[in-house]
Amino acid sequence: MAEYIEKTESPRKFWAWAGIFTLASALQRRVWLNFGIEDLYPNLYIMIVAPPGRCRKGAPLGLAKRILTKANIPVFVDSPTKRALTKYLDELGKTSFFQIDGVPKPQCPLALISKELSSFMAVNPKEMIEVLTDLFDSHDVWEYKTSEKGTDKLYGVCINCFFATTPSWMATNLPEEAIGGGFTSRFILVSGTDKDQFIPIPPIPSEKLYRELIKDIVHIGTLSGEFIWEPAAKLHYETWYYTIEKKVKATMDERLHGFLERIHIMSLKVAMALHVSYSDRLVITLEDITRSIALLEEALNDAPAALSSHGRSDLGVDTDKVAMQIRTCGSIQYGDLVRMNYRNVRPEQLDQVIETLRAMGSIDWKIMSNKKESLLTWKGVEK
After folding, report:
1. Where are the alpha helices (DSSP H) in 242-369?
2. CATH top-level class of 316-378
């Protein structure tokens, strides 16, 4: 995929996670890793969070959707209801089977892709948050009640999610209990603020490469069986696992603690997806787990920017917006900043925002005798 998307503006990490999502969606429940009393499947929830229009975040989602559709991997529509989603999963479970040791196994595999989380959540956000939170665990049997039929059952649930949204939408639309709690802690939050490069007229990508990508995904969708550990990989994972508690205590943003409690599970899911990109042998290697951990820790480091606007502060969204304005300009005069934000905040509120950013170490504020000419400079310290 790297060659296919070389001449695009979206950040490389957006494309990397789009590729991982596509691989995980193709694998469905056909592969697994034994994890104590339960098996672990490579389904993933991934959310790209970036300012509107700035990072071209829709392109990676669009390509993932096209490839999966062409490969006949089930993909669901935007703006669903809980009932529409569970009904579709029920229908999938009647036709989707795979063989393990000659025994047919039912599954309900589904890729949920939305370039705008607001669109996916449009009908009933509370219900969708609840059902996606519950379905993440890939239940062998999942029961749900309907008003028409009583209690129905789904067998072999396997949901992959790939969404995109903005920090301000998350701040104004997701309830507080969803941030850092059950919902966002299940998502790998991939944050971005800038384009990878500027390309006025993107070239038409190779049709041959596109067909090869689809062919690879179709083949990966035929793999089945249990992953096993390469000894060196298992030792590396176990050593890293014991460092997680220290990371939790060192992470001041409590909204990330829930994700940290699940990061070891995420690392194994991502490692399985990474491995099948280059080999049919179902073995987690040292390279797989090392790359997986590195990708997740990078996402963790950037996650505060994804959640930056969310909180109880009335000025949280404005603080995020002003930070982006100063960051984009590099340096800006106070008077210009007032003109850019007068529709949203009064001067005294803007001063509070600036003081907050200065206290965080994100900016310098050189106050002149004429306050309008005072200069604010970005220090390169992310929130």
Report:
1. 244-250, 257-260, 263-275, 286-306, 316-329, 334-341, 347-359
2. mainly alpha
